[in-house]
DUF7693 domain-containing protein
Amino acid sequence: MPARSATATATVSAREVYQLFRDVALQQSTLMRDDGPRWAEIDTGVVHVCIDGRRIALFKDAGELHHCLGCELEDGRVAGQDSWRGAGTDPLELLSVWERAQLLKALERL
């Protein structure tokens, strides 16, 4: 995800990113493709998406949504994997099974 700038002192919590994913699952926010390949175009690699203007990088491994690489909010705050250290702290791991399934459906429509 984007390199951390000297002016960005606050990071984005895993909970904040989880809430973005949850809002997509509940159809309260819009998921759009950002730069790069569409979800269906790659088997393994990075897919960049936007959720209501917030940029997120996701990693797809062997056709499966694997983990969140990072996030950049419109206020300039950024976070990456190093911001969410430890087991169970990736924002995707906070999703329920149903929420994750809905997010995957939205990704497949991109």
